[in-house]
Amino acid sequence: MAKRTARDARERGQIALEYVGVVTILLFLALAAIQLGLAAYAVQQASTAARAAARAATYNDVSLSPQAAGEAATSDWLTVKIDGPFVSGDEVTTTARVKIPPILPIFDNLGEARRSATMPLD
């Protein structure tokens, strides 16, 4: 059996500290990747909402407003706002703004994803 030296006794807790440091960094990177994915999802949902609102604005049917169509096209847990419709000539344009949801409360204001869509009038 090997004898323990004074050096071994000093280094016993070093591995635990290194482990805590590495786990903290890996956890931060994982949360950052998830946050990036949520931001990309918000951009995709804004694009979908803008297209649905522009499509609804091109029809003469008044049963579904462009705002309601844009909100119905997105996930319920996202906050979406539709600007428009803006008619110019034979085209209609709408803009959707979706608030990017934060993973952690310290990142409260991440901004919003904004996308526009233009469709021809019928």
UniProtKB/TrEMBL annotation:
Q: What keywords appear on the UniProt entry?
A: Membrane, Transmembrane, Transmembrane helix
Query: What transmembrane ranges does the database entry give?
Result: 20-43
Q: Where is the TadE-like domain?
A: 13-55
Q: Which domain of life is it from?
A: Bacteria
Pfam families this protein is in? TadE (PF07811)
Q: What is this protein called?
A: TadE-like domain-containing protein
Organism (species): Streptomyces scopuliridis RB72
